[in-house]
Inverse folding.
């Protein structure tokens, strides 16, 4: 079971832009919600010229009191459901395709000039290009992936649900890894952000990510995709063993030809 958080039957929180303009950059971002489907679209333009190859654009929602997503021992992570990129759409060089889901355990304070103080940010990155062409294979054994009905989604695009485990949210401080940070505590979340960043010139330009919902995953969601694949592998292995046994029996009954029947299975 999962606990719906935002999207679907639940309203999205209010988001505000937090872009690289606070550092002299020129990136832009916006957040819009479709009144009919309650899906959210995070879009904008990622600029890498103003800051010499760097850049980021994000939309952030703050919570007071903080969100209580549950204990780590009783939850697995966030289920992020989004629309996969269209299969036939070409990927332009540098076009942004990596979406970052970011969480903060601390409430950011404001400087006298209005800028926000830096705090530890826990980030999980989803590369949407992993879901562009081959929607039937999961990106890794440590992630859950569910594919929805393409005909029910707009533009013939399938919905995909990815399990972002708590342990896979990487702590950063001012964009750099923070090795001495404690693991993410989902019991107290003051801020949720969707971010698109340049990764030092790796991606730039216009971007648009369609998010359908966020939910808190139960421990039973952990490794569901890997478990199911292992189950199928076990079934196929058993089927192959049974087939070889039956084929060997009939081959032995027929003599196998030129003495080959001696290696088959015979009834007394």
């Amino acid at each position: 079971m999962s606990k719906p958080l935002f999207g679907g039957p639940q309203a999205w929180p209010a988001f505000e832009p937090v872009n690289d303009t606070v550092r002299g950059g020129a990136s832009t971002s916006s957040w819009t919600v479709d009144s009919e489907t309650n899906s959210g679209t995070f879009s904008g333009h990622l600029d890498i010229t103003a800051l010499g190859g760097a850049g980021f654009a994000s939309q952030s929602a703050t919570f007071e009191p903080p969100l209580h997503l549950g204990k780590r021992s009783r939850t697995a992570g966030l289920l992020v459901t989004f629309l996969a990129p269209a299969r036939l759409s070409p990927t332009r060089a540098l076009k942004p395709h990596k979406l970052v889901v970011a969480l903060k355990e601390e409430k950011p304070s404001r400087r006298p000039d209005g800028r926000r103080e830096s705090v530890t940010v826990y980030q999980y990155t989803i590369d949407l290009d992993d879901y562009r062409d081959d929607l039937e294979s999961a990106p890794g054994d440590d992630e859950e992936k569910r594919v929805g009905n393409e005909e029910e989604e707009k533009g013939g695009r399938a919905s995909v649900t990815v399990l972002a485990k708590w342990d896979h949210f990487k702590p950063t401080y001012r964009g750099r890894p923070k090795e001495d940070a404690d693991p993410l505590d989902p019991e107290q979340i003051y801020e949720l952000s969707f971010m698109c960043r340049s990764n030092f010139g790796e991606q730039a330009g216009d971007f648009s990510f369609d998010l359908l919902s966020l939910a808190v995953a139960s421990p039973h969601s952990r490794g569901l995709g890997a478990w199911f694949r292992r189950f199928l592998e076990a079934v196929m292995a058993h089927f192959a063993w049974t087939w070889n046994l039956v084929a060997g029996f009939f081959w032995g009954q027929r003599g196998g030809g030129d003495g080959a029947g001696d290696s088959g299975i015979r009834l007394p």
Notes: Residues 226-263 form one domain. Residues 98 and 133 are 16 Å apart (CA to CA). The chain has one helix and 14 strands. The chain has two domains: 2-221, 226-263.
